[in-house]
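Researcher: Please translate sequence to structure tokens.
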Amino acid sequence: MVKPTLRILKTPDLVIQALAEFVVEEARRAIREHGRFSLVLSGGSSPKKLFALLASAGYRDRLEWDRLFFFFGDERNVPADHADSNYRMARETLFDPMKTTPGQVFRMNTDLPPEEAALAYERDLRAYFGDRPMRFDLVLLGLGDDAHTASLFPHTPVLHEKEALVKEVYVEKVKMFRLTLTARAINCAAAVAFLVFGDSKADALYHVLKGERKVEEYPAQSIQPEQGRLFWFLDEAAAAKINP
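Model: Translation complete:
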């Protein structure tokens, strides 16, 4: 099992700043090595400030934006302009401010039925990588207070998926279909970085990092990059039970 690198900072703002610096470093590394940078974005509320920071004056000139390609770790089964859409949040905070071109952004097409959308996104991924190995440069992830990540929720069939890169999943907890990268797809990445802050995440983080291995109960335990690196960017509140 890959040994994670923990970066624990005092406040959420410092965590987000550290992760923004990490994104810049990884982008430069990837562009230097193979000319482009594939970044998988996480959804939910936690990364919103990160995206805004990357698009701010202090960072925008440090990235070669035309060499960046954006993907999504998961998506809610809502229209692209819906308030709950991960794509919409990223578009408003990152893509529009940076004037990214349509060819740089690979969104999960929620205009299609969930099963078709998952198959279509997998085709998009395979087309992007072509003859190259399927290997994102960096995957950003969050952690729910139930230890889910992306849309890999406890006790859902997608946790057992070994073949597909993208899968639809019905999440009873939220009474909604979701689309998600599978653990298989995420674990092909060159680097994976979790962004976690707040005391509400402390229990889940403890179980994922220190608890008995129970992927059904704590799905984020399934994230173990096969030949990549694993990072956790944490604030002190989230890390309280692993770093007393």
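Researcher: Any highlights?
Model: The chain has a mean pLDDT of 96.
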